[in-house]
């Protein structure tokens, strides 16, 4: 994501738009309010344990595997797990089993959000994910608060999703990020890279988040040390490393589509030489201006890459990614917001679940990020976005595993709700609704390294989404939520509405930060 004009909105405008701003806990919120939200959702028993088996009957099951929908099914949940799945006409329930008749409804796995920078009050953000049907998230720049939220969710003290938490960003020196954004680990050589991997593993990270400015020496040292330490590495493909090399080194998932533009161009060698000449001023203390400078240098190279797109080169690369098991998380949502700001909506219902001061700052921030483009730049950037859509369709056609992710934490992307818009963009890229649902359930779960979520099957975690309309007919029907099951806890319609009201009230009670907080997240997807 490009940096806003330096000096504009030095206070509130420096937070709440760019992905992964420092987390605000909300001084107006109390621990009692947070605990009350969890208790109201049926928490209080760790690990999703309930009061006995619960059967969802007469429902159409979309199991997340890509199999045809199965009407007239019963799904039994107990102790946070799916314990039985069979046609309702043949299912014999144990005495004392509670039942929920879901005639005319659709039951599918809870959604998996593969790219987030979660930022906001504890009483708002975790619950928003769950209540929007997102039952698993991957945090792409882990901070202590994310580990705290995860432990509270596991203990039953807080309503929220399963959380896969990454390391701080590990970047080259100087990093794109200055010290004003919080923790970034800069490494300049192989020894420093190996120390960084060992450090983040000790600190409890689930993966090493690598970034764009790593040197070749540092990147390959990270890949080797991560393998030795038994921890995945993933994130941006560094400017100095070809995607095929990263895949061969075990890079689990490539985030965003920037590197893919370069790798599929017949001008790649030229572009790589020009990338090597890109410079970041280590004396610049502002991440905003560092990012703006970086993207001003990189954007012409992306346009050059699109002009030289080579379908044969792309096909060879994509098939190698598929064979090597390297996934791609396109994050089309953030690309669209920043590349086509004129298409951004002026109001959405879910904005009420975030603090008003945060939402009200978005238009000016977006203008600061994207304003001043010439008509030719606007035309080029729209063509780049259209090309991204084409690449996503071709990646899928070549068998590359796609995982749905948004870069939530960026302005206009509301936790949980943003993923539903990402699904619609994946359909626009040429995937069928069934294929998109796989990308947001089973396939995303596998990319996260999780084997017990993402499908509706016996023994799987009871993370489920119940819909009022068929998402296979129209992917936008994933927004028509009837209820959710979060770690075995059934949240029916009336309870979900009440909990959302509580989230709205908590957001309204959250005071703005007294001082501007700099962006700290992935910060991807935009152009100056």
Helix coverage percent: 25-40%
Terminus-to-terminus distance:
9 Å
Arithmetic mean pLDDT: 88
Main sheet characteristics: 8 strands, mixed
Low-confidence stretches: 1-16, 20-49, 517-521
Please state the overall shape, judged from the principal axes of the Cα atoms. Answer: globular
Look at the helices and sheets and give the structural class. alpha/beta
**Strand proportion:** 5-15%
Total DSSP helices: 17
What is the CA-based Rg, rounded?
Answer: 22 Å
* Number of β-strand runs: 17
Describe the protein in words.
With 528 residues, the chain is α/β, with parallel strands linked by helices. 38% of the residues lie in helices and 15% in strands. Helix 4 (190-202) packs parallel to helix 5. The model is unreliable at 1-16, 20-49 and 517-521 (pLDDT under 50).
Chain-wise SSE layout:
Layout: H1 31-40, E1 54-61, E2 70-78, E3 81-87, E4 98-101, E5 106-109, E6 111-116, H2 125-131, E7 134-139, H3 144-155, E8 162-165, E9 169-171, E10 184-186, H4 190-202, E11 208-210, H5 216-229, E12 233-235, H6 243-248, E13 253-255, H7 258-263, H8 268-276, H9 287-307, H10 311-324, E14 327-329, H11 332-339, H12 356-370, H13 375-397, H14 417-428, H15 433-439, H16 442-447, E15 464-467, E16 481-486, E17 489-491, H17 493-508
Helix pairs in contact: 4-5, 8-9, 11-13
């Amino acid at each position: 994501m490009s940096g806003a004009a330096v000096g504009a909105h030095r206070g509130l405008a420096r937070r709440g738009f760019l992905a992964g701003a420092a987390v605000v806990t909300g001084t107006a919120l109390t621990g009692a309010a947070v605990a009350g939200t969890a208790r109201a959702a049926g928490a209080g028993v760790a690990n999703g344990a309930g009061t006995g088996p619960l059967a969802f009957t007469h429902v159409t099951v979309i199991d997340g595997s890509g199999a045809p929908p199965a009407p007239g099914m019963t799904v039994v949940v107990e102790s946070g797990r799916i314990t039985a799945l069979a046609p309702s006409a043949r299912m014999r329930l144990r005495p004392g089993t509670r039942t929920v008749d879901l005639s005319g409804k659709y039951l599918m796995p809870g959604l998996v959000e593969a790219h987030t920078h979660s930022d906001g009050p504890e009483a708002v953000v975790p619950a928003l994910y769950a209540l929007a049907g997102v039952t698993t998230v991957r945090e792409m720049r882990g901070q202590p608060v994310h580990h705290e939220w995860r432990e509270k969710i596991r203990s039953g003290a807080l309503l929220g999703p399963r959380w896969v938490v990454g390391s701080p960003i590990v970047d080259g020196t100087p990093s794109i990020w200055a010290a004003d954004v919080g923790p970034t680990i800069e490494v300049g050589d192989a020894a420093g890279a190996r120390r960084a991997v060992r450090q983040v593993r000790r600190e409890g990270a689930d993966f090493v988040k690598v970034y764009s400015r790593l040197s070749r020496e540092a990147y390959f040292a990270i890949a080797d040390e991560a393998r030795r330490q038994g921890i995945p590495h993933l994130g941006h493909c560094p400017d100095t490393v070809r995607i095929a090399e990263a895949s061969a080194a075990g890079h689990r998932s490539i985030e965003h589509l920037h590197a893919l533009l370069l790798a599929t161009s017949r001008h790649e060698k030229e572009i790589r030489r020009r990338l090597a000449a890109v410079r970041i001023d280590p004396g610049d203390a502002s991440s905003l201006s560092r990012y703006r400078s970086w993207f001003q240098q990189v954007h012409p190279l992306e346009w050059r890459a699109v002009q030289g797109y080579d379908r044969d080169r792309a096909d060879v690369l994509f098939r190698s990614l598929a064979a090597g098991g390297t996934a791609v998380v396109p994050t089309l949502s953030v690309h669209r917001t920043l590349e086509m700001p004129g298409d951004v909506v002026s109001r959405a219902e879910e904005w009420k679940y975030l603090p008003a001061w945060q939402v009200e700052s978005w238009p000016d921030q977006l203008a600061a990020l994207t304003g001043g483009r010439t008509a030719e730049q606007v035309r080029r950037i729209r063509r780049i976005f259209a090309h991204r859509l084409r690449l996503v369709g071709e990646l899928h056609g070549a068998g590359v595993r796609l995982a749905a992710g948004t870069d939530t934490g960026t302005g206009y992307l509301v936790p949980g709700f943003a993923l539903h818009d990402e699904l619609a963009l994946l359909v626009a890229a040429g995937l069928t609704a069934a294929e998109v649902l796989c990308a947001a359930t089973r396939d995303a779960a596998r990319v996260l390294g999780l084997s017990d979520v993402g499908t509706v099957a016996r023994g799987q975690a009871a993370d489920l989404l119940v819909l009022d309309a068929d998402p296979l007919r129209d992917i936008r029907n994933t927004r028509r939520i009837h209820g959710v099951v979060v770690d075995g806890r059934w949240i029916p319609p009336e309870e979900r509405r009440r909990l959302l009201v509580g989230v709205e009230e908590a957001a309204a009670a959250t005071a703005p930060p007294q001082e501007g907080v700099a962006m700290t997240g992935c910060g991807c997807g935009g152009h100056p």
